[in-house]
Amino acid sequence: MMFRSAVTPAMLVLFHVAIAAGAKLLSGGTMIAFDQESEQLRVIRGGSVLIEGDRITGVSDVASPLDTPAGVEFVDCTDKIITPGFIDTHRHGWQTVFKTMGSITTLADYALRFSALLAGLYEAVAAGVTTIVDHAHHTWTPEHAAAGLRASVDSGARVFFGYTFQNSSAEFGVPEQIGQWKELAAAMTSNLTQLCIAYDEWTSNPTGGNTQAVIDLIKESESLLTTHHVEGPWLLGNTPQDLHRAGILNSSTPTIISHASHLDVRGASLLRATNKHISITAESEMHYGHLHPTSHLILDQASLGVDTHMTFSTDILTQARLWLQSARYRVYQNTLDRWQIPAQNPFSVNQAFLLATRNGGLAVGCKDLGVIALGAMADLVVWEGRSPAMLGWTDPVAAVILHASVGDIAHALINGAFRKRDGRLLDSRYYDEVQDRFLASAQRIQNVLKEMPLPPQEGNFLTGSPFGYVMQVDAQRGEGAGYGPNFV
Ligand SMILES: *[C@@H]1O[C@H](CO)[C@@H](O)[C@H](O)[C@H]1NC(C)=O
Ligand SMILES: *[C@@H]1O[C@H](CO)[C@@H](O)[C@H](O)[C@H]1NC(C)=O
Ligand SMILES: *[C@@H]1O[C@H](CO)[C@@H](O)[C@H](O)[C@H]1NC(C)=O
Ligand SMILES: [Zn+2]
Question: For this UniProt entry, which residues form the secretion signal (predicted)?
Fold first, then answer.
C-alpha cells in the first residue's frame, strides 16, 4: 500500500517528468516514521520511502510499491534502519578549530578564553545531523560574519544561521550589524541556509536602542530568534519572562531558548502558552557546570543541541543518550531518596528519539522537519542494522538510541540529496583542500591559545555570584593527583 501525499495528481505528473532522474526509493528497510494524526512514532518493517525533489512523497509498507514512478533510483536498505535526520538546535559552528582544547574548562573559563573563526559542518553531517541552528557569535567584523554564512551555505546542511547582534567594536556595533543582516538577507539564494537572529541582551540591556532595533528586526523579518538562557547562580538572564516583556515571545516567530538551565515554573508556563522551545545541550550543561535541574519537566517544549562541539561530541545521538540517562538518574534519585525502589522507568527511548528529531523541527517552526511522513522534507539517515553493535535488534528506536554510534551511519540525505553514502561524505572538498586548510588554521590558533594561561577563577563571576570550591575527583591516591599533565 502506498500512502500518497497531498500533492495533486497534476503536480505529481509534473514532478515525475521534471525530476524523475533524481527520485529515489529507499527500499526494504525498517523505518521509524511518524503518524501526524496520532502524533506517535510508527515503525514500518520492510517498507520503503519515496523521495522526489526535496520531499518525501511516499511512505509504504512494501519494499517495491507497484506505483513507484519510472526512473526512480532503488537504494537497497535491507537490514537497515531509516530515521529522520537528527536536529541540533544549538551550536557554535565556528569553534571546530579549538578541538580538544577545552577538556577541563568550566563555563566561566570558556567565556574568557575561546574566540576565533572557522566553518566545519561536515562533521555534523557525517554524524547524521542534518539540521543545525547555529548561534553564530563570531560577528566581530562584516567579513567574519559573511564568511560564517558562506561556510554554512557551502556545507550542504540545513542551517539556521543565527547572526549574533552584539557590540563587537565601535565601528561594528548592532546598527551596522543590522544593516549587514538586511543586505545578506536580500542576497540569500540558498534553499537550505536561512539567515536568523541571535541576541543575548534581553536582560542586561532590556530597553536600550540596540535591543529595540533587534526587536524591530524580529517583528519585521519574522526570522527565527535564538538566545542563551542560563540562570541559577550564573545569572546570565534571557528568561522567557524577559523575552515576553520585550513583546517578542507571543508571536509566530520560532524562538529557541538554549540551555534554559534552571528554568522556573513561570518561564515554563510561558513557553507552553506561546509554544516556544528550549534547546537542552546535555553534554555541555554537564561539562561546563550550568546543569539542567528542571529541564526534564519541560520536555514537551524541548529539543536537543550540541553547543561548543570543539569540547565534546558533535552528534545529537550522543546528546540524546546522555540526556536520557542523566534525566533517568535525576528522576530515580527522587524515588531512592524516599528509600523506595523505582517501580517503572521514567523516560522512554521513543521520547528521546522525538527530542532528537521531531521536537527539533517544531523548535525551528517546521513540522515537516525531523519526521518520516508524507510531504515532509527528505532529510534522512540510514543506519547499518547488522554492524557488531546493532546485530540482533528488534525495536529500531531502542537500537538507534541505545546501541548505535555514528560509525553505523551508512547514508545521510539532506533535501533529497545524498550527503553521505556508504559511510563516506560525498563532498570531496572536505577530504582534500578544506581538511588541510582547516588543520593549518587550527594549529596556528591552538598554538596561540596554548600560550594564554587561564586566569584563576577567584572572587566573583562577571554576573556577581561568587566562585566556589569544587572538589577534585581522583582515580589515583594522593592529594591533587587527579588532573595529571594536560596534553594540549
Ligand atoms: C561598544 O564597544 C566599544 C568598544 O569596543 C565602545 O567604545 C562603545 O561605547 C560601545 N557601545 C555601546 C553602545 O555599548
Ligand atoms: C530552491 O527552491 C526553488 C523553489 O522551491 C527552486 O525553484 C530552486 O531551483 C531551488 N534551488 C536550489 C539551489 O535547489
Ligand atoms: C498571546 O496572544 C494571544 C492573542 O494575541 C492572547 O490571547 C494570549 O493570551 C497571549 N498569551 C500570552 C501568554 O500572553
Ligand atoms: Zn551556546
Answer: 1-22
Res 102 pLDDT > 70: no
Ligand 2 center to 191 CA (angstroms): 6
Which residues touch 18 (CB under 8 Å, ≥6 apart)?
none
Mean pLDDT over 158-172 rounds to: 96
Ligand 1 center from residue 243 Cα (angstroms): 23
Distance between Cα 285 and ligand 4 center (Å): 10
CATH code for the part of the protein at 9-84+370-425 = 2.30.40.10
167 lines ligand 1 (CB under 6 A): yes
Residue at grid coordinates 545541550: 281
| pTM score of the predicted model | 0.89
Domain ranges for the chain, please list them: 9-84+370-425, 86-363
| Cα(180)–Cα(202) distance, integer angstroms | 21
Kindly indicate the confidence band of residue 101, based on its pLDDT and cuts at 50, 70 and 90: low
Pocket probe for ligand 3: among 250, 269, 271, 301, the residue whose CB has the most ligand atoms within 8 Å is: 250
Do 173 and 167 contact (CB within 8 A), yes or no?
Answer: yes
Q: Which CATH number fits domain 86-363: 3.30.930.10, 3.20.20.140, 3.30.450.20, 3.40.50.300?
A: 3.20.20.140
Can you tell me whether residue 377 is helix, strand or coil?
strand
